Every structure is written in structure tokens, then in C-alpha cells.
Amino acid sequence: MEEINHLPQDWVEHYTTQRYMLNDPVIRWIYANTGAIRWSDIQLDDPKRILAQARTFGLRYGLAVSVFDNNPEGQRSFGTFVRGDREFSDDEAAVLTAWVSRRHIEKAPPRNITDAELEALRMVKDGMRLKQIAHSLGVSEGAVKQRLRNAKRKLGAQTGPQAVTLATEFGLI
Question: Which residues form the HTH luxR-type domain (predicted)?
């Protein structure tokens, strides 16, 4: 849902061009674990020497944070943080873990949205008007409006189109 990347552009280009993601021991650790770990503590093979190459770009000390709440959608949030001067302290690791955890919760789809509300959003997405939706569902237009109002509130959307977009991005519709 969100990517924030402040890594040096030359490293990003090198990493992307070499297609390192699937071979990156940090990424492999992130998808197999939760919590926080310093790069220097990761005990996974690095046959492409990605971490050694990162050091040549000034990325000497890193911390990986992975959050997964075992939800049915399988959503995981993670962060990798780097610095050139020293290892991350335990206190810094705790602060960064809390930050990633907070972002994970903030970006998670609502779990209280009803099937009826999703159905109304789906129909709006398909271009149907309120009258058509009401007729198709066998309910009043007021009931459809209420479902859409509830969906907007639960999704944190200001408008109907924004609610449809968020529900789509969350994979709900």
C-alpha cells in the first residue's frame, strides 16, 4: 500500500538492474520472520554478496523490521533501515519496530465492513447508479445510501469514489 524509499538512487538502480530482491538475505529474512534484526545478525546465504555490495554504496549497517498479524489476507509490513556510521541500538530498533507496527495497523483494511456494504461498493465500481443498485438488491435507495455511508466511514474515505478506490486497493472488491 505504501513505499517510502530514501536509499541512494545509485544503489536503488543497481539493486533493481541486478534483480536482487529474490536473492536478498534481508528480504528473505523479512518474509520468513517477524520482529527486528540487524543485518549483521542475519544468518542466511548471500551468494550474490548483496550486503557486501550495499556497503560499497555507504549502506554499512542495517536493521530489518517485519510485522505480520496472521490476518486472512496475509498482509505483511516491513522496513529496512540503514546507516553508515554504526549499528542500530536496541532502543533505535524498538522505536523503528513500533513505527512499522503503527504504519501496518494504519494501512490495514477494515475488518468490520459488511458483505452488503462491499456489494454496494462493487456495484458503484461497475458504474451502477443508486436506483439501479437498489432495484438489483431489492432494497430502498435509502438503504443503499446508508450502506455506502457506512462503507465510507469504515474505510476512512471522504467520497464514494475514494471509498471504491480504497476498497479496490485493499482487495476487498
Answer: 106-171
pTM: 0.71
For 55-110, how does the pLDDT look when each residue is reduced to its tens digit (9 = 90+)? 999 999 999 999 998 766 678 899 999 999 999 999 999 999 999 999 988 877 88
Amino acid at site 23: N
Helix 141-155 and helix 130-137, axial crossing angle in degrees, nearest 10 = 110
Question: What is the grid cell recorded at 69?
Answer: 498479524
- Name the helix (H) or strand (E) containing 17: helix 9-17
Domain 115-170 listed as CATH 3.40.350.10: no
Domain 9-107 has CATH 3.30.450.80: yes
Closest C-alpha to 34, from 70, 88, 83, 84: 70
**How is residue 39 written as a grid cell?**
543485518
